[in-house]
Amino acid sequence: MTITFSMDGKEISVEQGLTLLDAARENGTDIPTICFHEATTSNALCRICVVEVEGMRLLQPACIVQAAEGMKVQTRSERVVRARKTILEMLASTLDLSDAPEILTLMDQYGAKADRFPEAERRESAVKDDNPMYIRDYSKCLLCWRCVQVCADDAQYTFAINFEGRGYETQIGTFFDHAIPETTCVLCGQCVGVCPTGALKPKREYLLEQGLSPQEISVMNTGRKRRSKVTGQKSE
Amino acid sequence: MQFVAVSIIGCFGLRPRNDIRFLAIPCISVYTLHIGVPMSEIDLTRLHPVLDSYIPLGRSGLLPALHAAQRLYGWLPQEAAAEVARSLKVPLADVHGVIEFYSLFYNEPVGKRIIRVCTDPACALKGADGLLHHLCSHHGIEPNATTSDLSLTIEASPCLGLCEHAPAALVDDKAETNIDLEAGSYELGRPKSIVDGSLRLLTAHCGNGTTSLAKYGEYAALKKALTMKPEDVIAEIKSAGLVGRGGAAFPTGVKWEGAAKADGAPKYVVCNADESEPGTFKDRVLLLDDPHRTIEGMCIAAHAIGATKGYIYVRGEYPYIVPALENALTEAREAGYLGERFDIEVRLGAGAYICGEETALFESIEGKRGFPRVKPPFPTTNGLFDQPTVINNVETLCNVPLIITEGAAGYRRIGTEKSPGPKLFCVSGDVAKPGLYEVPFGVTLRELLEMAGGPSTEGLDKERLDPPLRANETDRIQGVLFGGAAGAFATSAHLDVKLTFEDLRAAGLPLGSGVVMVFNETRDLRDVLKRLGKFFAHESCGKCYPCQMGTQRQMEILDRIAAGNVLDGDMRRLQDVGWTMTDASLCGLGQTAAGAVLSAIKLWPELFVER
Ligand SMILES: Cc1cc2nc3c(=O)[nH]c(=O)nc-3n(C[C@H](O)[C@H](O)[C@H](O)COP(=O)(O)O)c2cc1C
Ligand code: SF4
Ligand code: SF4
Ligand code: FES
Ligand code: FES
Description:
The complex is a heterodimer. By secondary structure, chain A is of the alpha+beta class. Chain A folds into 2 domains: about 1-120, Ubiquitin-like (UB roll) (Roll); about 135-235, Alpha-Beta Plaits, CATH 3.30.70.20. Chain A is built from 8 helices and 9 strands. The termini of chain A are far apart. Chain B is of the alpha/beta class. Chain B has 23 helices and 16 strands. The model of chain B is unreliable at about 1-25 (pLDDT under 50). Chains A and B meet through helix 2, strand 7 and helix 5 of A and helix 1, helix 4, helix 5, helix 19 and helix 20 of B. The structure holds flavin mononucleotide, iron/sulfur cluster (2 copies) and FE2/S2 (inorganic) cluster (FES) (2 copies).
């Protein structure tokens, strides 16, 4: 069954059951997203996708709210823009967005200022480099929950990671902060694949960024004994 | 080390959900530690018999099991946490996530005795900071620290629901009230109830210790309800016009009808006794002094919707309520009111205001972090354990026996046409007689404050009051925090507003949980706002971005304003953050976290610019 509703004054018809985000994408309307990912459960965390729906007191997250017959939706009203801009400015004052180009682009689009909140306490933590496959740099984590979900019942059922703390102090973590090899992690890499900000990064990519050569990396990163003195030495 | 490395096709690749689901590898247990945790002095043999009773509950037994383990060891060593995980079959990382969420669970050693001093507004007015400082310097530690011999931990705490006794503290599981620093005196144990007002219907049995079943009398309202058809009970509640007293003001009959009509069994009745809204203490008094009224209300709700199981979720900072409640439940079972048909379990929270939000409360009973769920679906169809559920506040449930006994028409003789019934107000702060006041809807704020003896000057620098305050000079207040931290400020201009849903709405004031916290002319409202900011930053669950970051940014700005370091544009920052939280947050916490601040900006813009 199709339903008809209005988005930014334009009548559009979509299959019933689609979210406002799906409907917008089908019709070429741009609604930004951060936490949304096709492969993981939508929890409507980031609220960057909020839109104004006539008759609703509060802004509605487009990634989970279904389009309904006769709805009147504004995707760029003043309230929407204010919320998106403020969320982006708060993100910039909280974490290191240097590996999140999509968010930096959004900030440009919405005129969000990275220094809007002076004297803000940032979420900073040391890089966790405790396994041969990936590093965890939670200073870049924007708490999209994807890694936790793919590690749990969205995909892998390994349940190696969960949350530490709450509120602003939330961080992704293991049981009593054990190193990854001491957890149930199977090094499947699903979490690294879904991380949007470079907080989880393949170890090799990280080491390359740190200035190591591929040769140096393959020696140190096999997790096996060095093969021979010849490859172990720098030949360059 | 039993570490299984499995390589997987599509490493680091994105693929649709159904694809990746196939990659699940059920070959290793996620419930047991695969490493040799250093075996310390933790004696797990003491834990096993304790855990046995929680094993049948599965994951839902997680909070009770962690409470039990913490009672044994004083904190939650990882060996004990791992044992809980193994017994209840909960993934290790999830157990750790739960411990980390609740502020009353400790994953490192704390003192044998823990003193929690409330530093929220009502207590701050009565010298909470001085009390905290005095205790800390006396024991030679900083706030939120433990003595080196692990004998004592002292913490600054969010509101303990003892506001009429301010300043107040919680010492292990006992309330500390009537604190007089100079005399060095205090009372420890079950907090006294101070109950007054022009009505004594809901509070008929409050004020004289716990009312036994013998004194409460038979459950006459339940007996009457059982002779009625469930739909007739619901019709009675509906025509009585009862709306929820937990803050959201939702019509109770409509809620019950939704759950009654929903498909699915079992159905649940949940009593929300998480009461953590700063300034609120009514449910503490109702449950502690008259538990049978709430239990009877729950039994009637169970009959109306066809529920077989009930829960009372009591906030972790009210441990002293649990024995009184358990005792009342035993009495009710022995009298045959509870049993096969419907029975009730008590659950104790563990320090999280957000677990008062109904869906977060369900998650907590289910043994998870208290993250609110996205709504819809609503609890009436998908509540506790995803089953049809009615969740009501303690005070709401206490109205139910009254409605059934009196009939809707009789009940409607109290209060106003649009706000029928009696209402409890938690009056605290600068009034002569802080306490719980029962009145009919429709009295004015002035009348309520006069019942409470008017504004108080006790302990104040009277010279700063110009001209000096006379007794009962109600106009001389600076502000009233209405509805709690999640509420808004009123001023003396609002004194003649009638306390009804409709009049308050018109005045832009939320009734909330019935908080009326008074600040006299000498009070520094910036300091009050700073404490509210800290409260929300501490209590945000962190799930959605507007509130997770917004409560933190709001706190930082309010901190510097209180310290006199206002930056250019801070008012605008507070407004942008406040509007964004209000408009875009996922749950009621974020949606109201800026209410008091935004109302203060309207009333007193001068507070937010350089002095
Ligand atoms: C952050 C937050 C905290 C809440 N705390 C409580 C509480 O402590 N007690 C309560 O009854 N309702 C509380 N509520 C409201 C509940 O979500 C829910 O509306 C209420 O329990 C329903 O009962 P009622 O209809 O009888 O009021 C809270 C809501 C939010 C958003
Ligand atoms: S580590 Fe990456 S995937 Fe995980 S929550 Fe943070 S940003 Fe999201
Ligand atoms: S509004 Fe606050 S408390 Fe509610 S879900 Fe969002 S972060 Fe959590
Ligand atoms: S994309 Fe919709 S809430 Fe994050
Ligand atoms: S107990 Fe201190 S403010 Fe409520």
